Amino acid sequence: MSFYWIKTNRFIKWIFPNYIWDIPSQTNQIYLTFDDGPIPQITDWVLTELEKHNAKATFFCIGKNIEAHPHIFGNIVNGGHAIGNHTYNHLNGWKTTTTDYLQNIELCKKVIEKYTKSSTNHSKRSYFRPPYGKIKSSQAKELEKLGYKIIMWDVLSADFDQSISKEKCLKNVISNIEAGSIIVFHDSAKAFKNLKYTLPKVLAYLDQNHFTYETLR
User: Fold this and answer.
1) Per the omega criterion (within 30 degrees of 0), is the bond before 200 cis?
2) Domain covering 10-213 in this structure, CATH number
3) H or E stretch including 59?
4) DSSP notation for 73-119
5) How far is Cα 58 from Cα 82, in angstroms, rounded to an integer?
6) Cα distances (angstroms) measured from residue 79 to each of 6, 15, 59, 133, 171
7) Backbone angles phi, psi at 22, to 5 degrees
């Protein structure tokens, strides 16, 4: 199992202050985010679950998946959810030159704009989450010059990790949520076993504890 952290500690946030790890809140706001979609069946299932709780989220989409499933992407946008850039090909920044990385992000941006140009729901701000959370400082600096906000996370569900149980996935989230948390899920085939169990329970927990749902706008 590869290394990752479930709850981002203060030291990491201090080392990388230009990245957005959470959004401090005095009113119990939290930020649900979903990476890697849109994916047939899975993304629409997520949208249905969110709708049951009148919950809005931010979806960090892969460009090639948008092009393959534009109708599902349209469902995200028309549902009033926010959109972020997750590269066109789910690139690992540590293994990619800065030039190629920026070009790939720009390609994803063009795809997003193509399918949101007639929407009044889509934010004009540029949000980016690096796949795997891996990005070079040179890449980050160039993205910031282009006006991107780099969104990381405060709570990682690890739903993608097929070596953990669905109960552990749920605990990863429930045990670490606090006001202002940015929570990461994945609307992907790899994550769906854990996501299908965890998301409804997390939404119920958030409602019961009077959290409110916000998107990145």
Assistant:
1) no
2) 3.20.20.370
3) strand 58-61
4) HHHHHHTT-EEEE--SS---GGGS-HHHHHHHHHHHHHHHHHHHTT-
5) 4
6) 28, 36, 11, 27, 28
7) -155, 175
Rounded distance, CA 47 to CA 212, Å? 17
How many Å apart are CA 206 and CA 201, to the nearest integer?
Answer: 9
Q: Residues 19-49: pLDDT tens digits?
A: 999 998 888 999 999 999 999 999 999 999 9
Closest CA to 195 of 40, 56, 2, 42: 42
Please count the other Cβ atoms lying within 10 Å of the Cβ belonging to residue 144. 14
- What the block records as the tokens of 147 is 């006006």
Global pTM value: 0.94
Confidence of residue 10 (pLDDT cuts 50, 70, 90): confident
HSE-CB for 96 with a 13 A CA cutoff: 21
Q: Any idea what the Cα angle at residue 118 is, between residues 113 and 122, rounded to 5°?
A: 60
Residue 121's CB is within 10 A of a number of other CB atoms, namely: 15
How many angstroms from the chain centroid is the CA of residue 128?
A: 9
Helices (H), the chain: 10-15, 42-52, 63-68, 70-78, 98-116, 137-145, 166-174, 192-208
Q: Which 3 state secondary structure label does DSSP give 191?
A: coil
DSSP 122: S
SS3 143: helix
Can you tell me whether residue 142 is helix, strand or coil?
helix
